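Review box. Two proteins, two foldings.
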Amino acid sequence: MSSRIDPIFVSHGAPTLAAPRLPGEPQLAQRLQEIGRTMPRPKAIVVASAHWSTEDPRIGGSERPATVHDYSGFPEDLYKLSYPVPGAPDIARRTTDLIREVGFSVAMMPAQGLDHGMWVPLRHMFPAADIPVVPISIQAKLDPAHHFVLGRALQPLTEEGVLVLGSGGAVHNLRALGWKGDAATEAWAQGFDDWLFQTLAAGRLEEAIAVSLKAPEFRRAHPSTEHLLPLYVALGAAGAGTRAEALHRGFALGNLSLAAYRFGAN
C-alpha cells in the first residue's frame, strides 16, 4: 500500500486567516479544515513559505519550532495564538541531503521557527498540532524554474508519507487590496488567477514555469514573486506527469487570491 502524500499549495491570505474575520476567510479556513481531515495523515510536513527567504536553501531543524508572529498592525488576539508543533530533525536532515544531491548549497538552521505563512494554514488543516513540521526557505531572488528543481529534489519525501506544502499567494499585490473588505475583484486579478488554474489543470508545466512570459498581467498580479514561488516547490515535488486539482478558489480584500491546489502524479 502506497504511503504517498500529494503536495499541496495554499494561498494563506492575510494574517487574519488565523482567526477568520475578512470576507472569504471563513470559507478558506473551512476548506483547509476539510482538506486536513480527509487527506492521509502525514508523518511530517515540509513547508515552504513566502515569508522565509534566504540566498541558498535552508532547512529548519528545531525539535520544537517557535510560533513566529511576523506581522504588525493587526488585532491583538492574533499575537496570542500559537501552534506548538514538534519539529522533525531527522526529516530535516533527510531533506537537506536530498537538496544537496541536486547540487544546491544547503544547510540546517537549528533554531528556525514557523512564520505565519506556515503556522496559519496548518493551524486549520491540523488543529491538534501533533504532526512534526520542518520549514524550508525559498530564494526570492531566483525564478520559478529554480524552485521547481528544489521541489523535484523533495519528491522522494512524498513517497515516504511526508506532506510537501507550499504557502504563498496565487495573486499577491498589497497595493491593490481593498482593506475595507467589500472591494470587488478586478479583471486583471481574476484573469491571472484563471490563467494559473487553467494552465495547471491542463498540465502545461513548461508554460506554468514560464509564468512571467506567458501569463496575463503577471507583474500586476505579482510585483514581487516571493508569494508565487512556493507553488513551484509543491509542483516540483509532485514528480513526473503532474496533474493539478483546485482545492479552493476565491478572493479576499478584492484582489488577494485564496486559491489552493493539490498536485498529484499520474
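Next protein.
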Amino acid sequence: MISLQHKTILITGASSGIGRATAVLFSQLGASVVITARNEEKLKETFALLTPHAGHQLVAADLTLQADIERLISAVPSVDGLVHACGKVLPVPVKFIRDKQLQDVFSVNYFSAVHTVAELLKQKKLNQAASVAFISSVSTLHAYFGGGPYISSKAALEGYAKVLALELIPKKIRVNVLQPALVNTAIFESTVDAAINAGEMDKLIAQYPLGVGQPEDIAQALAYFISDASKWVTGTCLKMDGGLTLGFN
C-alpha cells in the first residue's frame, strides 16, 4: 500500500479539481499537506476536507506573482514533495492568438511552475530525495483545434520537467509529469460549456472506452509518483486518457 507517512507535500491549485482531490487523498495517506491557490475561501473548503494530521497548512497565494511565490515558500516548512496542479485552459483559434492570451496561459501553466521550483531551491526548502510532479495534458501528444496557447504551455512544462529531472539527480530529487485527457473538473466544465453543445459533448464522452477521468484518478497516480514506491522513476511522462488515444499512437 502506498504511504505518505512523515512526508510534507506542497500542493498548488488546491482550491478545486485535481489539486483538491490530491490534497484530500494525501492527507488520508498520512502526509502533512500545505495547500495553496488564489481563492482563499475555496482553499478553506479544501482544508476542511483534510484528514486531521499535524502540520497541515493553508497559504493563499497567486503564483503568477513573484512576491506571492516568495511569501509562500518563506511560510512553508521544507517539503518532501511538490504537486503543481494549478492550470488554465483558454481555447483560442490560431489566427486570434495575441500576446495577452499567451501571457495569461503561460503565467499559470508554465511560469508559475518554474518560479515556484526555483524559489524552493533558492530557499533550500526541497528536501533531499524529494519528488516533484507536474500536471500536463495528453493534448501535447494529440492536438485539438483552438489549443495553441494551452498545448504550447504544457509542452514547455514537459520540456522543463526533463531538464529539472536531470539537474536534480545529484540531490536524488525525482521529477515526473502526468498527461491526463478530459477530467471532470470545473475548469473543463466551463471550457466545454463555452465551446461544445450537449450533443457534441455526449459524442466526446463516448470516445473514452474507460469513461472520462475523475480528479481522484489523477490523485492516485500522483500519490505513486510522490511516494517512495516510485523511487526509481524520474523524467517520465505518464499518459492517462481512459483509452481515448488507443490506435492513434
